[in-house]
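Convert to structure. Protein one:
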Amino acid sequence: MNDPLPALAQRILTDAGARRRFIVAIAGPPAAGKSMLAEKLRQLLDQETGKACAAVFPLDGFHFDDCVLEARGQRNRKGAPFTFDVGGYAATLRRIRQGDEEVAIPIFDRSMELSRAGAAIIEPRHRIILTEGNYLLLDKAPWSTLRPLYDLCVLLKAPEDILHRRLTQRWLTHGKTLDAAENWIATNDLPNIRHVLAHSGQADVVFNAA
């Protein structure tokens, strides 16, 4: 099968034209490969233009901290739609869309299970922003209010068995026992996967991950 990413990169460059900012939303369930896709696209776009024209803006930096989730009794659902600062993400994305100043963004550090404020900078030279996260295309508020901020929407899909296998490996790598990983997937990851697949709105491009 031909790699679809070069064609997507060309479409982005064509659609972006001479715009100061062009925002691509990449959504999909946990472990579908959003971060990897965004990074590969960034590299392709930079290669095609011969300059650093693209940057990645992850939703995961807007996780509520564990202390907030503990106080709300939601620690066992960390990663669910209601455990993100959607307003903070939207406000930052609007600043980024302006395109005329540096914008510091938070990055989620999975090894520490927390977000690091100001861990990356989006600069005015970054005309194309690849923002990625599970819930960017959800069809209900507050997530649905983000839709006008995107110029192109990409949705990744994958069968549950593939996502389950990837998630098991992820949690084992991060120190969970097999039983703990399986419990977390069953009670948290799988509900989130099913929610994304059932309630994501229409995308301009759909990839079926293998």
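Protein two, convert as well:
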Amino acid sequence: MSGDKAAQKAERYRIVADNRRARHDYFIEDTLEVGIMLLGTEVKSLRAGRASIGESYAGPKAGELYLFNAHIPEYGQAANQMNHEPRRTRKLLVHRRELAKLLGMVKREGATLVPLQMYFNERGIAKLQLGLAKGKKLADKRETAKKRDWQRDKARLLREKG
């Protein structure tokens, strides 16, 4: 059944970059869809499917929310003078109340804003899924792996019997 949900989501959204490591390293408490301010060559490079958000994070800068260290490579077809900086900081578009709530959580509770996915929505607009996360310790990571293995074994046993 979860495969059906993933297929439906893939039809609605075209995922460009996925941070699979985030769910391993963090407890994701809440997710939020935000817009990204991009240059034309960045959008073209994203449409070609070449981006990496594995090492990136979001945070405040001058009272606004920015995406740091996301790698969108230069667009090959554009002339060198028209291209963008691959790891430049990019402004994230968030409603003012959501921004205040997120920054409050980050300051008070020590949470981190982790990018989970970068995708194009139904209208073709580039969006970023941010996760409000807390770091996992090594024991937590082991516990998560143990639960995942048990779920897989349980599903295998049920398939064999049924």
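The two ends are 16 Å apart (CA to CA). The beta strands are 14-18, 26-36, 57-61, 64-68, 90-93, 112-120, 126-135.
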